């Protein structure tokens, strides 16, 4: 693979791993945030109910006040009769006193038309006395149901508050008027504003009227329809206060009363964990708005853990992949090697068969020349002997003629042996032929073929052969091996004065050892390792092909034997080892 593409791949992998780490980290952080958000949202209702309780307690404290005052005989009597200025002054002071003791905002007494006949704030500039509040819903509620309640901005004072009222009846149950207590919530708002959370109370129309943060009061959380607006105008609930929409967008819903909401508030768009709790008794809803938890230590830890896990997985994956790849590569190498070995073995076998054949033919050529020489001589001798024989017969010397036949017969036998051997020599023997044969007789045959040379060159021959030495193999091929060894020995001793050739066959447990040693000076160290190589020869061009030992080696190996060369005292020693053949 080219270096640049490898570099590119490496870069790509690195980038992928890093992107994976960032994604994993980001995802884990997101999950942690998600979790923290849900956790925080779950805590909402508890806090909400605490706040709701404090509001509820405050209202309950004052609810009894108008109910008790409605029983007051003095008030009943006043409403039943004509309210003179003296009575009014008396009532005003009474209400002022009770209001001070009860710590409510104001107390007022309305007659059956809704006209304030007395009020605790009679001597302030905002005095209710003389104003008619018959248009307020709490008044009509009180007349019809006996009690009333209504949150509104005071039309006289401009101060918002919660009006709780009870009907005043005479002994006959006739509606005389109403006694009204007003609560204001600045104390509560102050108390609530201490925390960082935003607390809101909205009415049935989702108009916020209590808020512990500036900018929220008199904002409606959903758009108002025409009937809403008409009703607000008639009841003058929020009097002159302008009502504006607070745009909100729900981002997530945790449950019916818990959301993640974006508010386009006074400080720009802000996300809030928004919890709501309906206050059934008043028909209001309490809202708790909290800032969602920001990226915390937990989030960072989760991200780090995820990155760590991701990297671990990546490196584990890489490690396993690498191992798998190495395994596969090894497997492939092994297979390739096996295939190569097979192919080479096939090639070698083919080459070897060819070599055996050509070496045989070469040997045949050499042998033919030798034979021609060998046969010519006896032929001439025989022709002369025949002439002698004819003469002897002509002269009737039968006795002598018989005697003269014996050397003729000898010569013919020898010639027949030579040619008989030749006949089989050039034949390609089927490979794998395994006849049971005597190694000693193979030696005999070979010696017979080289006998003329042995004699001519005056070679001293010693043989020590175990007979019979049974082996399994191909007689012709083994003979070829023997002839090669003998001829090499004779070649080596050609120029040495002392020519000694020794052939032995010995056995150990399972093997025959056939040794051929000569006194030809041996093989030099540098050549010793090469003598079995094909075409290795030290003989002059034309004399040696360098195939003899290579072919012999191959033949012996094919028969399950071994052929080795070494040096001894003054010559070379070749050892042929073959397994001993068991019984036929
Ligand atoms: P060739 O006889 O055609 O050279 P061989 O394969 O039979 O081929 O022999 C290879 C070489 O081994 C010979 O050339 C010779 O150098 C060496 N060699 C073989 N036998 C002997 C021996 N008995 N003594 C010394 N050298 C030998």
UniProtKB/TrEMBL annotation:
It is a multi-pass membrane protein. It catalyses: ATP + protein L-histidine = ADP + protein N-phospho-L-histidine. Its EC number is 2.7.13.3. Coiled coil: none annotated. Keywords: ATP-binding, Cell membrane, Kinase, Membrane, Nucleotide-binding, Phosphoprotein, Transferase, Transmembrane, Transmembrane helix, Two-component regulatory system. It holds the Pfam family HATPase_c. This is histidine kinase. The keyword ATP-binding applies. PROSITE patterns: HIS_KIN. PANTHER family: C4-DICARBOXYLATE TRANSPORT SENSOR PROTEIN DCTB, SENSOR HISTIDINE KINASE. It is found in: Cell membrane.
């Amino acid at each position: 693979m080219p270096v640049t593409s490898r570099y590119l791949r490496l870069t790509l992998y690195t980038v992928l791993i890093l992107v994976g780490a960032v994604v994993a980290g980001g995802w884990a952080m997101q999950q942690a945030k998600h979790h923290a958000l849900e956790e925080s949202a779950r805590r909402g209702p508890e806090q909400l109910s605490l706040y709701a309780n404090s509001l509820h307690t405050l209202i309950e404290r004052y609810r009894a006040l108008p109910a008790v005052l409605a029983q007051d005989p003095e008030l009943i009597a006043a409403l039943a009769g004509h309210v003179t200025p003296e009575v009014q002054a008396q009532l005003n002071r009474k209400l002022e006193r009770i209001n001070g003791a009860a710590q409510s905002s104001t107390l007022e007494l309305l007659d059956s038309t809704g006209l304030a006949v007395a009020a605790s704030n009679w001597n302030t500039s905002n005095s209710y006395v003389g104003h008619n509040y018959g248009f307020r819903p709490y008044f009509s509620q009180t007349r019809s149901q006996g009690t009333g309640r209504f949150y509104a901005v005071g039309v006289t004072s401009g101060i918002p508050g919660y009006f709780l009222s009870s009907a005043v009846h005479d002994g006959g149950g006739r509606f005389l008027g109403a006694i009204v207590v007003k609560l204001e919530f600045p104390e509560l708002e102050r108390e609530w504003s201490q925390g960082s959370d935003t607390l809101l109370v909205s009415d049935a129309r989702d108009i916020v009227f209590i808020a512990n943060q500036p900018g929220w009061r008199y904002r409606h959380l959903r758009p108002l329809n025409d009937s809403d607006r008409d009703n607000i105008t008639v009841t003058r609930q929020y009097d002159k206060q302008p009502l504006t929409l607070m745009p909100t967008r729900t981002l997530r819903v945790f449950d019916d009363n818990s959301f993640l909401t974006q508010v386009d508030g006074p400080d720009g768009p802000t996300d809030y964990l928004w919890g709501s709790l309906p206050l059934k008794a008043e028909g209001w809803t309490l809202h708790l708005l909290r800032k969602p938890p920001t990226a915390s230590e937990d989030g960072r830890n989760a991200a780090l853990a995820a990155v760590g896990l991701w990297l671990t997985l990546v490196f584990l994956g890489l490690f396993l992949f690498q191992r798998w790849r190495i395994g596969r590569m090894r497997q492939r190498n092994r297979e390739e090697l096996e295939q190569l070995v097979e192919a080479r073995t096939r090639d070698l076998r083919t080459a070897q068969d060819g070599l055996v054949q050509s070496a045989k033919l070469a040997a045949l050529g050499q042998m033919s020349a030798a034979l021609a020489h060998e046969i010519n001589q006896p032929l001439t001798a025989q022709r002369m002997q025949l002439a002698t024989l004819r003469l002897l017969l002509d002269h009737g010397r039968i006795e002598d003629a018989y005697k003269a036949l014996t050397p003729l017969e000898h010569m013919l036998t020898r010639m027949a042996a030579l040619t008989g051997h030749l006949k089989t020599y050039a034949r390609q023997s089927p490979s794998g032929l395994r006849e049971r044969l005597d190694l000693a007789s193979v030696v005999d045959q070979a010696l017979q073929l080289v006998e003329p040379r042995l004699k001519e060159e005056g070679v001293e021959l010693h043989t020590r052969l175990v007979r019979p030495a049974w082996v399994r193999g191909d007689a012709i091929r083994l003979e070829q091996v023997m002839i090669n060894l003998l001829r090499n020995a004779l070649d080596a001793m050609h120029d040495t004065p002392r020519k000694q050739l020794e052939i032995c066959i010995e056995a150990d447990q399972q093997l025959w050892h056939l040794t051929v040693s000569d006194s030809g000076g041996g093989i030099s160290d540098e050549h010793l390792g090469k003598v079995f190589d094909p075409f290795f020869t030290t003989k002059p061009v034309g004399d040696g092909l360098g195939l003899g030992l290579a072919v012999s080696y191959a033949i012996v190996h094919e028969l399950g034997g071994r052929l080795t060369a070494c040096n001894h005292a003054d010559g070379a020693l070749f050892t042929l080892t073959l397994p001993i053949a068991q019984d036929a």
